[in-house]
Amino acid sequence: MSTIRSTHASAPRRALTVGGRQGKAGLGGVVKAGGPAIIDEAAEGQGDGPTDVEAAADLAARPELRLWLRLSACDALIGQKLRTRLREAFDTTPARYDLMALLDKAPDGLTMGELSKRLMVTNGNVTGVVDRLVQDGLAVRASAAYDRRTHFVRLTPSGRAAFRSMAEAHQAWLGELMGGMDREEVVALLSLLDRLKRSVRGGSR
């Protein structure tokens, strides 16, 4: 099984925020800016679990608020478990996993700008992760023929093999974590969340 070094050890501390907009979650952060909670990533590996943001809601609160908090709580809980398992099984982080997942779907590679846009983070966030993947022999970076200022990043054969090993385990973990629901319930929930996503995208700003 391929081993990937963690890039998370030097991550800056992020304040835990409930119901606010403080800070920005970095690559692999559990809840991004604007969400109800930002997990303190520096506590990762120290036994600290995610805070259940649903506890902030009054049971008499409007269902829209409770739904928002429940979605955030589920996202945080699943994200924490996956983060822990990725670290323990592969010595890697969600940041690397997410970036490698994008590159696995793009055999010809992606530019740094494309990676930043798809991951919804800054070029600086992406650069650090890519640098480490290149150092570990899991990715290569090359200038575009039409513009040497533009760099494409793609996985090496060993990088692709390492990612697919992780992806297989990742899928099995998700199946285990959602094992309390039958397939029909999962499909029904997926359909409802699709409607919610479209509602949010089409909502007033």
Report what the structure shows.
- This protein has 205 residues and is mostly helical.
- 49% of the residues lie in helices and 8% in strands.
- It has a 3-stranded antiparallel beta sheet.
- Helix 3 (112-119) packs across helix 4 (123-135).
What does this entry show, briefly?
The chain is mostly helical and 205 residues long. The protein is 49% helix and 8% strand.
Helix content: 40-55%
* Oligomer category: single chain
Total beta strand runs: 3
Shape: globular
Spatial extent as radius of gyration: 18 Å
Structural class: mainly alpha
Low-confidence stretches: 1-48
Mean pLDDT: 78
Measure the end-to-end span: 47 Å
SSE sequence, one letter per element:
HHEHHEEHH
Count of individual helical segments? 6
**Major sheet characteristics:** 3 strands, antiparallel
User: Within the largest sheet, what's the order of strands?
Assistant: 1-3-2
How much β-strand is present in the residues?
5-15%
Question: In terms of topology, how is this protein built?
Answer:
Layout: H1 63-90, H2 94-104, E1 110-111, H3 112-119, H4 123-135, E2 139-144, E3 147-155, H5 157-177, H6 183-202
Antiparallel strand pairs: 1-3, 2-3
Q: Which properties best describe this structure?
A:
disordered N terminus; 6 helices; single chain; 205 residues; three-stranded antiparallel β-sheet; mainly alpha; 3 strands; 49% helix
